[in-house]
Amino acid sequence: MKLCRFGEAGAERPGLMASDGSLRDLGAIIGDLDAAAYDQPVLDRLRALDVATLPEVKGPVRFGPPIHRPGHFIAIGLNYADHAAESGMPVPAEPVVFSKAPSCISGPNDPVIIPAGSTKLDWEVELAFVIGRRAWQVSEAEALSHVAGYLICNDISERAWQIEGTGQWIKGKSAPTFGPLGPFVVTADEIPDPQALDLTLDLNGVRTQTGSTRTMIFPVATLVSFLSQLMVLEPGDVVTTGTPPGVGMGKKPPLYLKPGDVMELGISGLGTQRQVVVAGG
User: Fold this and answer.
1) Strands 73-77 and 238-240
2) Confidence band for 281, pLDDT divided at 50, 70 and 90
3) What is the C-alpha to C-alpha distance for residues 273 and 108, in angstroms, rounded to an integer?
4) Which UniProt keywords apply (predicted)?
5) CA distance 78 to 91
6) In the chain, which residue ranges form alpha helices assigned H by DSSP?
7) pTM score > 0.90 for this model?
8) Cis, bond preceding 60 (omega within 30 deg of 0)
């Protein structure tokens, strides 16, 4: 299944992308695609629906984030060796874990807002996943059975806030619009191997990032198992897994986002995103 939310910001409805490419309205079946909706029994109920009986949504729509306010938005840093190198940091011996505020989440094609005081705004195309079964101290062998599905994340980063001063990555990762997600969550049964996905990001029509999840230092199964040794992962929690090389901070000289810039990013099988950068107040 490809699960999505569509409509104006704050008034999105749950939807499902049918195999023929049509958008179907799930509003009569489920109230919203919130964290509880990604619990495995709920997904099983949605999977059993006769899609042809669901109302078809006609015309262009805005896609919102495909999950409404996850309980936890966890991120992994430096998960590609070549990105660690361009960042001037050593390859980590274990996953680098930080959080993004759930309030930073936005739709896949919504504007990215440069907040007041920002001077080094950067981009990061990433594979993210949603938890579908409670995970506490699970093994790598069973880890993927706890994943509900996969989606695209643009891990927008304000590098000065992230790295300078006292550091603390969450500071540079959490402003409004710093977490575009979607356009949909593709359920795990449609992604047999999350380590075989290609990632790209273009800035103003120029390819800046090209990568593959094959080159992750810590694959998805390792991340689920590792995180679950430290905390309970609940259905609906979102984990974004790190970015391949090609970010603005790593360029010589560094290149940062400015008003009017356009980011276009995609992951094989998971759709595409497009964001215009705008100045904030």
Assistant:
1) parallel
2) low
3) 5
4) Hydrolase, Metal-binding
5) 7
6) 40-47, 81-86, 140-143, 159-163, 220-230
7) yes
8) no
